[in-house]
Amino acid sequence: MKNMRILIPISLPVTSIDALEFARKMSQERPIIVTLLNIIGLNIACDSRLYNDLSLENENVLREIGRRFFGRELDVKARVRIGKPSEQIAAEAKSDQTDLIVMPSPGHARQRWFHEGTVKGVVRLAPCPTLVLPRLWNCAPEKPRGAAHPAEESTGHWFAPSHA
Q1: pLDDT exceeds cutoff 70 at 90
Q2: Distance, CA of 111 to chain centre
Q3: If phi over 0 gives left and psi between -120 and 50 gives alpha, with beta otherwise, what is residue 121?
Q4: DSSP string spanning 105-152?
Q5: Are the C-beta atoms of residues 7 and 92 closer than 8 Å to each other?
Q6: Whether the predicted pLDDT of 154 surpasses 80
Q7: Contact indicator for 98, 128 with CB cutoff of 8 Å
Q8: How open is the CA angle 115-37-46, to the nearest 5 degrees?
Q9: Measured distance CA(20)–CA(8) in Å, rounded
Q10: CATH assignment of 4-137?
């Protein structure tokens, strides 16, 4: 069976836990390749070294999130692009021949570029199906009693289902 290519846009520092969890469950059913994508959208003119430094830093964070969330047995790529989020997500999906884009629903205040316009733009521009997941996980500033979610180690945040 051909590996399904899944693209997951990640807004740092808040990760897309819903999308990561969806991909992890899918990986138990079929072989997949995950690409974690972060978009840098600075609206200022600056030295290209700043973009290069930010890109390298964010790529390292994405790799660590992938390693901690999926382990070493899953093929996870880390990509950073610069520009308008909806256009860059669609461009990455096209260049990587992505089979499915999985992204969280808009609305979380800390997810800067996961607003309604970005999600609609991705759905409109994407060269493949786009799955927009309802938000099931909320960031909690402090860890509640009980076991931590695996993402805690990689992000320093604890994530809990919003229905809990």
Answers
A1: yes
A2: 11
A3: alpha
A4: PS--TT-TT-SHHHHHHHHHH-SS-EEEEPP-EEEESSPPSSPPPTHH
A5: yes
A6: no
A7: yes
A8: 80
A9: 7
A10: 3.40.50.620
Query: Which 3 state secondary structure label does DSSP give 80?
Result: strand
Q: Which two tokens stand for residue 129?
A: 């199906």
> Which residue, 161, 162, 154, is CA-closest to 69?
154
Q: Where are the domains of the chain?
A: 4-137
Q: Count, in order, helices (H) and strands (E) of the chain.
A: 5, 7
The first and second tokens of residue 108, run together, are 């979380």
137-162 residues labelled b (16+ CB within 10 A) or e (exposed): bebeeeeeeeeebbbeebbebbbbee
Average pLDDT over residues 144-158: 43
Apex 108 CA angle, 103 and 114, nearest 5: 40
pTM comes to 0.75
Spatial CB neighbours of 22, under 8 Å, sequence gap ≥ 6: 102, 131, 133
Rg of the Cα trace of the chain? 15
